[in-house]
């Protein structure tokens, strides 16, 4: 990815994570993420699902575990050539391939089974739009936090891992 691509800093309760977006290959997902960042949407949200050896998901729930209202879903850009490898960010979604809104996840390992293989129910995949370029140790530290069930969800950290602030940083 070019150094001219936008960067976002997530200041979390465990440390800072710097993400470089790929606006060239994932223009819709990157713009969507940037819109939420600029609006302050992610400030005070938690990483609500962490599965060691798989991924850490956040961007949708506040510390009282209330799901935040989002904008309309975006199109799935999983066919952009970017893969779900360790340290990449991808859009979270429901079974509907075009249902991603604000939630995202960071891959702990190469999760090739999440990659796009075809425009059908089993092959759509999850759209990668960025990569952690600093702070992967912080992401790894999240995986060491004990999890339990909360609010009908599994794999929720027992102690909130909060995104205190998400901000665009200049290259």
Q: CATH top level? A: Mainly Beta
What name does the CATH topology carry? Answer: Cyclophilin
Query: Cα distance, first to last residue?
Result: 13 Å
Count structural domains.
1
Description:
This protein has one domain (7-64, 74-169): Cyclophilin (Beta Barrel). The model has no long low-confidence stretch (mean pLDDT 96). Helix content is 11%, strand content 35%. The chain has helices spanning 27-38, 136-142; strands spanning 7-12, 15-21, 45-51, 55-62, 88-91, 104-107, 128-134, 147-150, 153-157, 162-169. It is built from 2 helices and 10 strands, in the order E-E-H-E-E-E-E-E-H-E-E-E. It is mainly beta and 171 residues long. The chain has an 8-stranded antiparallel beta barrel with strand order 1-2-7-5-6-4-3-10.
Topology of this structure?
Blueprint (H helix, E strand, L loop, with lengths): L6 E6 L2 E7 L5 H12 L6 E7 L3 E8 L25 E4 L12 E4 L20 E7 L1 H7 L4 E4 L2 E5 L4 E8 L2
Antiparallel strand pairs: 1-2, 1-10, 2-7, 3-4, 3-10, 4-6, 5-6, 5-7, 8-9
Summarize the structure.
By secondary structure, this protein is mainly beta.
Features:
35% strand; mainly beta; 171 residues; 2 helices; two-stranded antiparallel sheet; single chain; Cyclophilin; 8-stranded antiparallel β-barrel
């Amino acid at each position: 990815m070019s150094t001219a691509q936008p960067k976002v800093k997530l200041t979390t309760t465990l440390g800072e994570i710097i993400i470089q977006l790929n606006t060239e290959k994932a223009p819709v997902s990157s713009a969507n993420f940037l819109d939420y960042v600029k609006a302050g949407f992610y400030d005070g949200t938690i990483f609500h699902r962490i599965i060691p050896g798989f991924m850490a998901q956040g961007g949708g729930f506040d510390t009282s575990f209330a799901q935040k209202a989002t904008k309309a879903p975006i199109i799935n850009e999983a066919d952009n050539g970017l893969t779900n490898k360790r340290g990449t960010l991808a859009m979270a979604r429901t079974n509907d391939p075009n249902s991603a809104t604000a939630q995202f996840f960071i891959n702990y390992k190469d999760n090739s089974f999440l990659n796009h293989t075809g425009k059908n129910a089993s092959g759509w995949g999850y759209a990668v739009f960025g990569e952690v370029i600093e702070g992967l140790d912080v992401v790894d530290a999240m995986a060491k936090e004990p999890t339990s069930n909360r609010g009908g969800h599994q794999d929720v950290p027992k102690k909130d891992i909060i995104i205190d602030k998400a901000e665009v940083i200049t290259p």
